[in-house]
Amino acid sequence: MASTNSDLNDLHRGMKSALSARWGLLMFEGVALIVLGVLAIAAPFFATIAVELYIGWLFLIAGIVGLVAMFYADDMRPSYGPWSRRRCRSALAYCCSISPAPAQQR
Hints:
The N and C termini lie far apart (81 Å). This protein has helices at 2-21, 23-42, 44-72, 85-97. It contains 4 helices and no strands. Helix 2 crosses helix 3. The protein is mainly alpha-helical and 106 residues long.
């Protein structure tokens, strides 16, 4: 029990010294977050667009990385479930080969 308290005290002292050494960066981060929060409240339309763009890019990049990982994961044991690599590749090829319907003119 005494060693646990000693370890916690060492951890507390280490964190305190690390935070006190970088107080300027923490102050800058706090001020920047307050300013961005006020701007997000003042202009919710632009904040919504910014979040949508961020999430959209995040999903797009995650999807591309996932597809690349699927194609290069040849050392994996083959899966016989409903989402095996062969079926995923076939679904991807099918989705990429579909052309949109032509627009109807009025």
